[in-house]
Amino acid sequence: MRPLTPDDPRTVGAHRVLARLGAGGMGVVYLARTSGGQLVAVKVIRAEHAADAGFRARFRREAEAARRVTGPWVVPVTDADTEAHEPWLTTVFEPGPSLAEVVAAEGPLPPATVRTLGARLADALDAVHGAGLVHRDVKPANVLLALDGPRLIDFGIARHEGATALTEPDALLGTPGYLAPEQASGERAGSGCDVFALGCVLAYTATGRRPFGDGGAAAVLFRTVHEPPDLHGLPPALLPLVEACLAKDPAARPTAREVARLLSAPPGEDPDAWAPPGLSALIAARSAAALDVPALPALSDPEPPTVVGEPAQSRPARRTVLIAGAASVLLAGGAAAAWTTARRPGTGTTPRTLPTHTIGLHADLTGPGRATGLAHRRGMRLAVDDHNARADAPFRLVLRTEDDAGDPARALRAADRLAADPKTLAVVGPTADVVTASVVHRYEKADLAQVVVAAGSTTAEVSATKTLCVTRPYDRALATGIVSYLTRTRRAVRVAVVEDGADPEGAWAITGYFGRAAVPVHRVAAGTDDFGPVARTVVAGRADAVVLASTSPTRGARCAVALAAAGYTGSRVSTGPVLAPAFLSGAGEAAEGWVFAQAYTDPAAVPAAKAFTAAYRKRFGSAPARWAAEAYDAVGLIADAARATSATGAEREGIAQRLFRTTHPGITRTVSFSATRQVRYETGIYLYRVEHGRARFLGPYTKV
Predict the structure, then answer these.
(1) Which residues neighbour 544 within 8 Å (Cβ) at sequence distance 6 or greater?
(2) Which ranges in 208-332 belong to alpha helices (H)?
(3) Has residue 364 got a pLDDT over 60?
(4) Which residues pair with 350 in a beta bridge?
(5) Among the listed ranges 209-218, 243-252, 284-293, 367-376, which one has the minimum average pLDDT value?
(6) What pTM, to 2 d.p., does this model score?
(7) Torsion angle in degrees (nearest 10) through CA of 221, 225, 228, 229
């Protein structure tokens, strides 16, 4: 999902538009909400297509036909207005990932999953063909995965079998790599082209490769027409059917109904046990993200909103009076400069235009790190709300989010999109554990400030960067907190380090600190999970403090259990990455009393964050998630730096360097930087102690 642009409608028919889901040559797809509260996807056809009388007539017929397509594996068309200035249709909104995303992330799917998925897609195509339509763009990106099976979407270029295309007669509609030879040759395509595309989808799902290869469109189309498919690695049970689907001659291909029958589950196999691993969690996260999109509030004056179907020249000029709470209009993507009322000396009260700056969020919202990404987004939304509600704000803020799903290739594309937008003032993220040098380079190349909140390390050469601003101490610096704890708070005389041999790089960050003090280091080999011998050695040596050098919560739990079993009762400390649910659950009672150095705060325990915590609970129904408060402060830091550079008129170019000279009194701490552009550790490293199965915030390490 992407925020709305100033040119996007705020309503489509009776539907309230919330965000962009995608765009193509024929139109734009929006996430919207019906008057009854249901989420739907709305496809709006561009006016230039609708201006053609023949197009509109065909769209009218085909929209009516599409509404008749029913079946469990088709996303149904629920509403349409074919007579609007920009005609539109709606379908049920499905929050699941696309098949393309799942295969890209997980690799080829098991044969049984492929067979069940193919059978249900064939059923969907049979329903489409039964309504007299040809889909014409069956591909992995147009297959959404729900908990009970796939859903075929996007009838945007569907047409009656035998009818001409909705656009120019010689237009090539569809996606190279999934187009049938007759489509690639520009011939009239019938239902057989959908079966051919289904064969390509099955081959891709089972092998992770497109059967006619990658590369330029022309090369792929040539191979589609003239060369046999590459089906190497396809499971033998699927090979004959896929070969039949990919026949060059449409007449030699089976029908969709025949494909469904041939792929039906054999006796004894549960057809419902098909879902790829992790699908339910991903769907839940995406559902939460969709529900988290704020509904646009009603305008504060009586002028009507922009409505699809209203000719552009007849739309009245809109004047939005910015008041507290109206910031969600900007959050939803209203990137135009906001109108506000301000008093100018000697002139009375007159309207003036405030500039609007975009802050980008580069986050993993749908991948393995989605919890951290969502925390960033929520914290930043509250920060943008608060900034825009200030009467003395010299500019307004808009939040633009790019989801990389934790995928390195998508991360680069997300960075390119944010960097290419001239309105982007700065970017917060990525939200992954490691910030890669390739992503940093993209932002460096664009002279775009990159504020990193949560990542524990980077592969970039920090000394060579000029736009990378990290607001937390990296994981390797957290040992400072436990050294302080053992020398100031609970002074230890005989310290022993337990080094995790399975994590030499992570362990080095701690052993390096204590090694210089001639502290004994006891290594647990990578090939064993038994921490017992080392635990007994520590007890025999009468150590009064044990430092675990590791980043693994699971192995940390084993260490805690082994120490407890050996009768150890002294101090036990480690650093951030170990303190995770897997440590608490795995260690059980043995976790009690462990102390950890972390780079994030607990806003519920910080007086300065009281209002933030209350607002977060009210808006999102839970206590602030980890890193949400730090993301809130990142927006404040950027805004403070922007105020100091706004007089030059070159905010984006100067913001990166200004960040390092800015001291921001945030809700988590005062954020400031040293002369070497490193965030100051004194207030950025915190201690937690496990009590009653939970981590209790103790405070900054210098004050515990």
Answers:
(1) 492, 493, 494, 495, 570, 571
(2) 217-226, 239-245, 256-262, 279-292, 327-331
(3) yes
(4) 342
(5) 284-293
(6) 0.53
(7) 40
Same domain, 441 and 378: yes
Name the residue range of residue 239's domain: 99-274
Residue 78 pLDDT exceeds 90: no
Write a three-state SS string for 547-569: EEECCCHHHHHHHHHHHHHCCCC
Q: The domain spanning residue 155 has which CATH number?
A: 1.10.510.10
| Digit-coded pLDDT (tens) for 351-360 | 457 889 999 9
Q: Which of 137, 386, 403, 602 is catalytic?
A: 137
Whether 104 and 163 have beta carbons less than 8 Å apart is answered as no
User: Does a structural domain hold residue 34?
Assistant: yes
Q: Is the pLDDT confidence value at 449 over 90? A: yes
Is the pLDDT at 348 greater than 60, yes or no? no
**What pLDDT was estimated at residue 656?**
81
What tokens were used for 601?
């705060």
C-alpha 320/C-alpha 100 separation (Å) is 41
Instruction: Calculate mean pLDDT across residues 55-60.
Output: 80
Known catalytic residue at 249:
no
Cβ neighbours of residue 692 closer than 8 Å, sequence gap 6 or more: 592
Q: Are 149 and 120 in contact (CB under 8 A)?
A: yes
In a domain, 338, yes or no: yes
d(CA 299, CA 11): 12
142 in the same domain as 74: no
Tell me the DSSP string of 454-509. Answer: S-SEESS-GGG-SSEEE-S--GGGTHHHHHHIIIIIS--SSEEEEEETT-HHHHHH
**Residue 523 β-bridge partners:** 499
Specify the CATH number for the domain of residue 636: 3.40.50.2300
How many domains would you assign to the chain? 4
Two tokens, residue 404: 């990389």
Does residue 376 contact residue 418 with C-beta atoms inside 8 Å?
no
CA distances from 137 to 27, 94, 134, 156, 580 (A): 15, 18, 9, 9, 44
For 338, which DSSP code?
A: P
Look at 374 and 269; give whichever has higher pLDDT.
374
Q: Which amino acid is at 170?
A: D
* Residue 506, token pair as written in the block: 């992570």
Return the pLDDT at 166: 35
Q: Are residues 464 and 327 in the same domain?
A: yes
